[in-house]
Amino acid sequence: MYLHDALAPAGSDAKSLALLWWVFLTISLVVYATVITALVLAIRRARRRRLPAGSPVQLTDRDAPAGKVVAAALGLTTLILLGMLTTELVVGRAVLDESQPEGDAVSIRVTAQQFWWKLEYEDGPPGQRLVTANELFVPVGRPVELRLQSSDVIHSFWLPALAGKRDLIPGNENTLRFSVLRPGDYEGQCAEFCGYQHANMRLILTAMDGPAFEAWKTAQLAEAGAPATEELQRGQWVFERSSCALCHAVRGTAARGTVGPDLTHFGSRRRIAATPLRNTPATLARWIVDPQRLKPGSRMPATALAPDDLRALVAWLGSLQ
Amino acid sequence: MTANGCEAEAAALDRTWAEPPGLHGWIATIDHHRIGRRFIVTAFVFFVLAGLIAAAMRLQLAWAENDLIGPDLYNQLFSMHGTAMMFLFAVPVMEAMGIYLVPILVGARAIAFPRLNAFSYWMLLFGGIMLFTAFLFDTAPEAGWFSYPPLASSEFSAGKRQDVWSQLITFSEMSALLGAINIIVTAFKLRTPGMSLGKTPLFVWALVITSFMILFAMPTVMLGTGFLLTDRLVSTRFFDPSHGGDALLWQHLFWFFGHPEVYIIFLPALGMISQILPAFCRRRIFGYFGLLLAMGVTGVLSFGLWVHHMFATGLPPIGMSFFTAASFLIAIPTGLQIFCWIATISGSGEVRFASPMLYVTAFFFIFIIGGLSGLMLGSMALDQQLHDSYFVVAHLHYVLIGGAVFPLFGAFHYWFPKMTGRLLSEALARWSFWLFFIGFNVAFFPMHMLGLQGMTRRVYTYGADAGWQVLNQVSTAGALLIAMAVLLFICNVWRSLRHGHQAGSNPWAASTLEWFTPSPPPPYSFVRQRVVASRDPLWDAEAPGEVTGLPVDVRSTLVTHLVDARPDHVELLVSPSVAPFLTALAVSAMFIGTIYSPWAVVWGGVFVAAALVYWFWPSRKETEQHVSHEMKPWDDLKKARS
């Protein structure tokens, strides 16, 4: 179950924003009810007066108090707006001010591209930086600092249950800071139209407690181990010798491509290609053979493979836990 | 009035203002009534086409992971929907209403520049034809109506799709700019004697303010699309960050136009409400100067809001908070107008709920929701969540359909008898109104919730596990109701044109000058221009007088002073000509040529120059006629002395 509701917040920013939303909604409902009531009363008043048909039209303002009522309503509107503005600026400063870096933040560089997310954990020593894609893992309670950039067109990073969105603009780095309040799986997607597969540029974030996060990180830093069976060996061989390795990297093998997502721990991912498709052997096989069918417009080309090679490749990719 | 012994004058005017017959006359006409009607119908056809496109999108979204429409077509569909609705329907139809109504409302015989008016119509028509032809040949725009680079650059959008988009903007903006000039001059210089600025109808004022906004807003988007086109065509680098350009520059240029654009659509609708309300409440509008001031302030403030479309781009919060404050500030003039209208109703002696009034009442119910959700989007904090989600789709339709299309439909029903001479069927109008009102809310209200649940805009599909299918299906059902409502409206128009009751000159017993002429008005509108003494001349006990002595053997109208509308001189007007049509063809060829080659500017320029020479070539007969009507005070003085 992935959470993506802005009004069921589980992040620091989203929580303040949800509160602000309820304040604005309450004021709006009261204002709406008041104006509509005034309109209905005005109509009833006019109809009750029921001037005889053919009586002369009214050319002068007979209602001396009407001007005063309008002026009072205008003054009240101004006061309400000032109140809303003050509330909004207080919350806005807290949510939008990204100028104060926090010491123990988990720092992740997010590079958006058509149509997936490259994620680089930057808080370790240089040798300890792990690269993954589309599935973020963060510890609960610690600040998360995202450095947002784009390598092609404009995208926007949005996890509704955790924080507001922030654009990723080529030539322009943005920062987004928030912390996750509750463990869970959260979903989001690119929020700025970015082309063909804007709809399938999704992202999931899993928040776990500190020790579990460190364990996950240690596991992800490991290189791919030697294949255990003959089929897996064949799978790795296919990967390294076919076009896969031109774009994808699997640390610990000869595949060093940087165009597509790093696949070192592909077997541990839950989804394929930033779509909602589950990472199952059957779907993966379909994806490798004909990606344009599952995600038309994706940058991944089709790869023709013999059935045995394909089976071995899928098995090997699945073994990359 | 025609009974007052001016049949002879009327007959002479009929001869003078007659249009050439047949196809030639259809192309050469410069009658602002005919062009205005044509403009309205053309814009309405684009509305229907863009609406059908929306219906197709709604069908695709009715089921999760639906594969009715693929991403390539879907991206073209939403780009077409936005582009056509904004540039081919909303702005043109409002100007078209102005082109038809402003000259009559100010009591003039014609629009200030009749040939320019025809040219502006042809430009819109040719631009629209180009866009929809491109759609048929699979070269429709694909980067949205906002067309952000780098996505719209040649690197990420190869082919000609975005060039077509850029040039469509040039077409429609050219048409809008020329229309704006025409409306401003007509409203400022052709008002009938006595109609000082303070007695000018609010609809005219709304169009004047709108026209000034067009003059200031549209050049920035033309500049932007010009940059985009040269980026794509001759590899300039205005928006390319890897070569020193800036991707955000486009967004500033686009929204500096794009936000006023919303008010360019909205202000004429406010003017329509201020015309319709008094007629159905049978009382003078409350707070004329308040309403006027509110529209002016809205027009000015709308230029200070554009950054609220860019709150997620990571601009500094201090800077953004000014735009939040400005966005909130604009609610004050809007509030003032709503209060004034309620006061108008409250102080009146009756409210007749005929179809135009139904649409105006619906405006209050829908638009206020859109205005309040606008405050939420104007808040830089809340916008971090709401921006580019379905909440925005809901908001913009509440504002644009509730705030502009409902009053516009009210205006269609209100002025249809004037334009055609026949009344619409009230029963059909009521059916279509209720279908529209209910369908609209069913279609767009659920989108607020979808946005808050994380559904982003401009997605061609969504996952089955997201839980968005039910609300999307409700929304699609609402869209189909709207389609039925519009179909019923078209049937009503079709039927009433043949079988509707004769309207007479003033079926609603309204107060302004357009109801003084026969329905439909003759090409010269008024046999004798009426002098006015108040804002509601037809409700005055008696007319203060009429203008006599205008020549009847040559097309002319009276030019008056800007502020107090004192008579100044008689303006002799041009005669019908095919030159505007030919020039529009030449300009269109040049614009379409530049999609393919920069050299089109050169060879296209030759055609345009030739067409313009033909346009301005003086005719001997007309010149002699004009010379014979010239005032010669010196000669007269000499004659008197001798």
Give structural notes.
The complex is a heterodimer of chains A (321) and B (642). Helix content of chain A is 39%, strand content 17%. With 321 residues, chain A is an alpha+beta fold. Among the domains of chain A are: 106-221, Cupredoxins -  blue copper proteins (Immunoglobulin-like), CATH 2.60.40.420; 230-319, Immunoglobulin-like (Sandwich). Chain A has a 5-stranded mixed β-sheet, with no helix packed on it. Chain A has a 3-stranded mixed β-sheet with strand order 4-10-9, covered by helices on one side. Chain B is mostly helical and 642 residues long. Chain B has a single domain (7-628), classed as Cytochrome c oxidase-like, subunit I domain (Cytochrome C Oxidase, Chain A, Up-down Bundle), CATH 1.20.210. Chain B has helices spanning 7-16, 22-28, 32-61, 71-105, 114-136, 161-189, 202-234, 247-281, 288-301, 317-329, 331-346, 355-378, 380-386, 390-420, 426-452, 469-499, 579-596, 600-616, 620-628, 633-641, and strands at 530-531, 545-546, 556-560, 567-572. In chain B, strands 1-2 form a two-stranded antiparallel ribbon. Chain B has a two-stranded antiparallel ribbon with strand order 3-4. In chain B, strand 3 (556-560) and strand 4 form a beta hairpin. Chain B starts with 6 loop residues before the first helix and ends with a helix. The model of chain B has no long low-confidence stretch (mean pLDDT 94). Chains A and B meet through helix 1, helix 2 and strand 9 of A and helix 4, helix 8, helix 10, helix 11 and helix 12 of B.
